[in-house]
Specification:
The protein is mainly β. About 15% of the residues lie in helices and about 50% in strands. A hairpin with a 2-residue loop joins β1 and β2. The N and C termini lie close together (about 10 Å).
Length: about 120
């Protein structure tokens, strides 16, 4: 499944994983775009509360730039660097051109919507 990920004025597409968490996330997007205020964390990721819980299937994962994951069942994390932790993979940005610059160094508003 493809989704749109808008970071400020920049629009990206992402491909969702084939799992129950990604399916539930997509169902939320079909009802209305999901807008998340994301804060910078540790200089390699943006994290924000989803405001709902998704079915998690966490496992040890090494992330890379462009990965979108679920943390703690209710937090969306987008990576512009790398980390290794227990996450549920949700998807990944398709084309990373300009992605890190769009995220910037501060807080951002990210809108996830069905493509």
């Amino acid at each position: 499944m493809k989704i749109n990920v808008q970071v400020g004025d920049h629009l990206f597409t992402a491909t969702l994983e084939d799992n129950t968490a990604a399916d539930a996330f997509f169902e939320m997007m079909k009802k209305a775009p999901v807008v998340i205020e994301m804060r910078d964390y540790s200089g390699f990721e943006k994290v924000g509360s989803l405001g709902a819980r998704l079915p998690a299937s966490d496992r040890q994962t090494t992330t890379h730039e462009g990965d979108i994951v679920l943390y703690n069942g209710n937090q969306i994390v987008m990576f512009y660097g790398s980390n290794s932790w227990r996450y549920t993979r949700l998807g990944a940005i398709d084309d990373l051109s300009g992605f890190k610059d769009a995220l910037g160094s501060g807080d951002v508003t990210v809108t996830f919507s069905a493509a």
